[in-house]
Amino acid sequence: MSKIKITFEKLKELNxxxxxxxxxxxxxxxxxxxxxxxxxxxxxxxxxxxxIPFSDPMADxxxxxxxxxxxxxxxxxxxDTIKLAKDFRKKNKETPLIxxxxxxxxEAIGVExxxxxxxxxxxxxxxxxxxxPEESKEFVKKLNKEKIDSIFxxxxxxxxxxxKLIAKQxxxxxxxxxxxxxxxxxxxxxxxxxKNVKNIQKYSxxxxxxxxxxxxxxxxxxxxxxxDGVVIGSRIVREIEESDEIEIISNVKKLMHSMKTAIDSSSx
Amino acid sequence: MxxxxxxxxxxxxxxxxxxxVAETLIEALDELKEMYSKYKDDPEFVxxxxxxxxxxxGRPSPIYFAERLxxxxxxxxxYLKREDLxxxxxxxxxxxVGQALLAKRMGKPRVIAETGAGQHGVATATIAARLGLExxxxxxxxxxxxxxxxxxxxxxxxxxxxxxESGSKTLKDALNEALRDWVTNVSNTFYIIGTVAGPHPYPxxxxxxxxxxxxxxxxxxxxxxxxxxxxxxACVGGGSNAMGIFYPYIEHKNVKLIGVEAAGEGIETGKHAxxxxxxxxxxxxxxxxxxxxxxxEGQIIETHSVSAGLDYPGVGPEHSWLKDSxxxxxxxxxxxxxxxxxHNLCQVEGIIPALETSHALAYAQKLAADxxxxxxxxVNLSGRGDKDINTVANISGISL
Lengths: 268, 400
Hints:
heterodimer, A: 9-stranded parallel sheet, globular, B: Rossmann fold, 4-stranded antiparallel sheet, about 45% helix
């Protein structure tokens, strides 16, 4: 059973929702990525999404775009991202680790090569934003063979037939995009999200995590009550961007703590 | 011979093309596919499209025998398909008319567009004004600077121009930003892509709307030149004017098709915008798989060309297919060669060509010299150069 699946099952027994923070590898600098990841885990992350920097992140809002640009300025690309993940794994063997990125860097270093590198780094799942199921059948097959989960997005506009198609190809969990827009966009409508998550659960046994637009503890709590996981991306990346260098770790810690406390107080 | 029937239902041209977008866009693309296939052969839609092309755009555009240019080159006869004479000054308007009519039928009150040189932005703003649609145009902030007349034109036409500051601040970043807008405002917005790139069905749809150019040539060439051309030449950035003139000729196997990319300061310098000629690797950008200028880890690299409209790291997927299948060939022309051709056409024929088009003209002159006077070259004169006079004056050290 995959580490992602085990984690969701454990949390389910406790009636809890997973807290899944996102950071971009190499932002603000490659030397800080692993300590940031450790900080996330120490302060309640149940799994981590690590972003692969890309020059043209078309599904991301300005906050994560800038993180990608900073990382690229630091010369961190896909290979260094995997190296940083590997460094993280030296001390942490348990926390599920998910890479999130775009198709081109993966294809540029070669799909086979990518999969063998992430297997070595003990990465548990991959989200490739611009690989819809129709264009990624072979890729998913290869990931499955190495027991790496392929996580797919479902959007508010995804129709039922398509949810079935996506669920069939996905593993680990389903990532529900809470709003029409890019990462970090406007406030989300909890009632609508709740209805859509329930609808997705009709078609799949997989856990459903919700992301895009979770920007404060109150929203995190509300989302945790209606889903199996809460993804927090732009809000954390913004904290990294706006903090003085020496305060990044302590500020991220505070932010994570507030999110975790809110989620733990929820009544599922 | 098998008829040419690409792309397949998933938008694939062999290994190229496809739909590489986030799930958030799939529904919108499915809706667009459905509506386009519903209307593309609908007699009423087709009639309205052609009526607009005739009465608003001024089609058919003439083909002109460039006699003095031909004499100067000293070989094959050079004919120019005068897309510069269209309303708004370039081929771009053909596609824009088609997509805007589709937007109207889909009940979308707002259209958005990306633009490089500004020609597509102007064409979109023009049609939006005519149909009473709200219009937002994304344009790299670098391009806003070098194409200021077109920026003002768009504003006069009532469009909002949004300068894009991310990435390399050029066409590719404008496309990213337009996609982000679309995903956010998908219920009331139609995205009018200006080139034969993007996710399916855009490369096919933009080609189809622009192919009126090639179809007219098929009729006009026998009249004016007593034969079909031996060679058709067009410049290629994303490749919409080239696809528009190439497409109806694909099945005419004895007509050579040549696309001219921007070699910038020279292919060997790395400062160019010629993914096909420089043998770039295949990759995925803006929703499709195609040849793409990128580094070894798949980051898109900055491109260079004196012409904003060719300054794009990828190329429409159908061009990648035409190259690999051998049906078309691709060459590149440097900035200085294009500038020389620009000045030359002004002086020899009394036509100010766009800098993009000047790349095609430069190659046509070279090639004509090696051909016989019985042979015929047809160049797609894709746009007029009024928008470029500031750029050219600057390069010549003249302030206007």
